[in-house]
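[audit] Reproducing an earlier prediction to check determinism. Same input, same settings, fresh worker. If the tokens differ from the archived copy the diff job will pick it up downstream; this log only records the rerun itself.
[audit] input (177 residues):
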Amino acid sequence: MTIEEEYILIKAAQENPEKFEPIYDRYYLPIFYYIAKRTENQELAGEVTSVVFLKALEKLKQYEFKGAPFSAWLYRIAYNALMDQYRANKLRRVVDFTSKQIEDVAEELDGTIDKALINKVVKVIPQLKQEEITLLELRYFEGRRYKEIADILEISEKNARVKMHRIIAKLKKLLCP
């Protein structure tokens, strides 16, 4: 589906909330997996996903198309709902990634993919701040573009790039004390 086709669905749902179902059907699983990956709790992920779509439906009339995919707006709601859960329930933050994704980070740090470096990266990631881990996840583990990261985190695209550069520099320092 193109952004234009999606926008037509959104406009219809803004006029009549009963037409929200195609949007819900399209994004329920990706949002659920996004949340489940960060909580490692299927039941909690289902609850938070429900909250996300309830908030999305309640705020849909306020949504304005700004050139980014609608999913960025939903992921921002999901991110905020997750942060609320972490604070309210003092949940442990989960970082989930594949070996290929961590190789991408290692390659960014050093230009090479070395097993020892990969193991070091895995050990230092938990030393990062919550926001830094989130940026790392969005960029390297989910492969999102800076524009989408900026929309999700409600920062400028330039700020997202600068923050990512600083995170990479911080990781390099943590790896070579």
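[audit] rerun output stored. Observation attached for the diff report: The mean pLDDT is 84.
[audit] end
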